[in-house]
Amino acid sequence: MADRLIQVIGTVEQIDTVAGCLEDLPPDQWWRLPYDEDEGRQTLYVALFKADAQEVMDAISEGLEGQEGWRLFSLPTEASLPELDDEEEENRRAQKETVNAREEIYREVRQGTALTPDYLVMTGLAALVAAIGLSQGQVAVVIGAMVIAPLLGPIMAFAFGTALGNFSLLGVATRALGAGLGVAVVVGVALGLVMPGSYPDTSMMDFSGALSLRTVALPLAGGAAAALMLSGGQTTGLVGVMVAAALLPPLAAFGLLLGAGDIPNALKALATVVTNIVAINLAAQVVFLAKGIRPRRWEGSDHRTSVRVALGASAGLVALMALALWLAGHGYVPGL
């Protein structure tokens, strides 16, 4: 069953170019609509399996590169007939269909990174709920705050932008994440100033342990799971990853403790936040690269699509985490 319908709209000459890119496909998988004389444009459709969509979209993009006035749409299909009878081909496609097209993943991560008033309000409300839950020792309330917090989106966008070497997406993700973290800290500090005092003796407010590999194991697993779901189009499972990543509780605790004047524990909470962000981002980058998500062109004059950008950023994050863990584990970082 074909589960992707590629629609290309352009001039007759552009559609001729697209048709030339599809010569290796069976003729029953693509077709052209009659030329519209009034609009001066023509439409071509390609019925594909998700496993083959990326290759075809790349071929079309390269064929029409530098030209204007054409559009390509990738449309998911609910069902199609007749069904595929070739078991060998079915197995091949099933093995490859664990990764969405690069453009489809980009659309998902870009939507989750938009720096809008709704994003800031949701982050502030999530931080408020988490801070209240922490101050009262209510685990269920903190879990609810993690579900509604949108902070995972910018982190995944940063990891995806690194895999593609896309500086524009990296900048957007950095701004959104920075703004979200700032809002959450301000809310936590404000609540800490309004409600100063001792907090319940629970593990959620306990940051006395030293940073170690155990500290990053949870966000590493959460980041890897999020990247797997995002690359496979299974975004409904990201809610569980938001809870598993445990990014919001230490961030809200940092604001609470800072507002209450408990600087040592506030710094411990901040160190946990930074470690979580780096670990989630690193794990997601590794998964994206392992799943074969690449820029359309590895090398070229445009350094945003260079593999060196992705590998350099990943190596830097690995070195940063290794150094931080080594220093903390050997007592070179006071209080951690």
Secondary structure elements and pairings:
Blueprint: E1 4-10, H1 12-21, E2 30-32, E3 42-48, H2 50-63, E4 71-76, H3 87-96, H4 102-111, H5 117-136, H6 139-148, H7 152-164, H8 167-194, H9 213-231, H10 238-245, H11 248-259, H12 263-290, H13 307-329
Antiparallel strand pairs: 1-3, 1-4, 2-3
Helix pairs in contact: 4-7, 5-6, 5-8, 5-11, 6-10, 7-8, 7-12, 7-13, 8-11, 9-10, 9-12, 11-12, 12-13
Keywords: Membrane, Transmembrane, Transmembrane helix
Organism: Vannielia litorea
Protein name: TIGR00341 family protein
Features:
336 residues, alpha+beta, Alpha-Beta Plaits, four-stranded antiparallel β-sheet, 4 strands, 7% strand, membrane, TIGR00341 family protein, DUF389
Overview of the structural elements:
The chain is of the alpha+beta class. The chain folds into two domains: 94 residues, Alpha-Beta Plaits (2-Layer Sandwich), CATH 3.30.70; 226 residues, no CATH class. The protein has 13 helices and four strands. The longest helix is centred in the middle third of the chain and has 28 residues.
Helical segment count: 13
Order of helices and strands: EHEEHEHHHHHHHHHHH
| Biggest beta sheet summary | 4 strands, antiparallel
Distance between the ends: 55 Å
Number of strands: 4
What integer value in Å does the Rg equal? 24 Å
Structural class: alpha+beta
The proportion of residues forming helix, as a percent range, comes to 55-70%
Uncertain segments are 298-305
Averaged pLDDT: 78
**Overall number of domains:** 2
What is the percentage of strand-forming residues?
5-15%
Strand order in space, largest sheet: 2-3-1-4
Quick one: overall form?
A: elongated
Pfam families: DUF389
Transmembrane segments: 115-134, 140-164, 176-199, 211-230, 237-260, 266-289, 309-328
Organism: Vannielia litorea
Protein name: TIGR00341 family protein
